[in-house]
Specification:
By secondary structure, the protein is α+β, with helices and mostly antiparallel strands. 34% of the residues lie in helices and 21% in strands. The chain has 2 domains: 9-156 and 292-312, BirA Bifunctional Protein, domain 2, CATH 3.30.930; 157-272, Bira Bifunctional Protein, Domain 2 (BirA Bifunctional Protein, domain 2, 2-Layer Sandwich). It has 10 helices and 12 strands. It starts with 16 loop residues before the first helix and ends with a helix.
Amino acid sequence: MTRPSWILPDGMEECLPDEAWAIEDGRRQCLDLFRKSDFGLIMPPMVEYLDGLTSGVGQDLSDQIMVITDRVSGRLMGIRPDMTPQAARIDAHALNESGTTRLCYCGSVLRAVASGGEPSRSPLQLGAEIFGNPDLSADIEVVQLALDTVRLFTDEPLMIDFGHAGALKSVLVKQSATFQAKALDALARKDLDALATLEQTVPEIAVFKDAYGELDTVMQRSESVALLQKACADITEVKRGLNADQVSWYCDLGETHGFNYHTGLVFGIYSLKGDQLLVRGGRYDHVGESFGRARAATGFSADLKTLVRLAN
């Protein structure tokens, strides 16, 4: 049977007037919040040369890029699946500022397949990034801004889930790609049997087996472990610096998301009512290295359509 021409591809969606106006109102509220926090708005192009989109932080997104051919140059181009690599390129080259740079954005992205449990392949990505500040003050600012952004749309109970890439990277960086893949898979699935096998080769893996759960509990049993002390100290300081109400705290020091590019504290903000990821972010220092200018960086992103739907 021929598929009717009016049916959209899987994972694509259209917003009708009521929702579209709500999304536009939400966009304005978010950008006003970012502007008051001294973030500069950027509007990168939807399409770039493929090698630009897959540099640095974009490497993990390469399988999400829809590839097309530029009829002018003959070169391969990609439709952006994420705006973070574009923000890093703009910071490194178009702006090239010496101090701290704050950038924000809101625009459509396109993904080859749905990811992260979300059915949509066409999110309206909202985000903010701080470049050039290696201090935890930037991490606190980013997490607070992410939380304030969510609070524009809902006052329901939330969960903040902290992780830290530093300890896990220090353990796995010297291992083979095959071992890394097995360890990341076992940690993501919390497969204790697989981790027990892996720790026969790399004993340090054992410290991550129970380094997740309610935040205070994880801190109590992990802060005396030498390998995890910096992660615990960073997370404790960031939490202390936040103004957060109706929030539950969770922690996973073996968090694997973004392993290839995250370098420090990472976090997610979840809706407890809907058991849904709303915001994801973290530190990814040296992000501009592939563009010829290494910079400390931390930021977050969210699907604006998901946030707006919280209010309905």
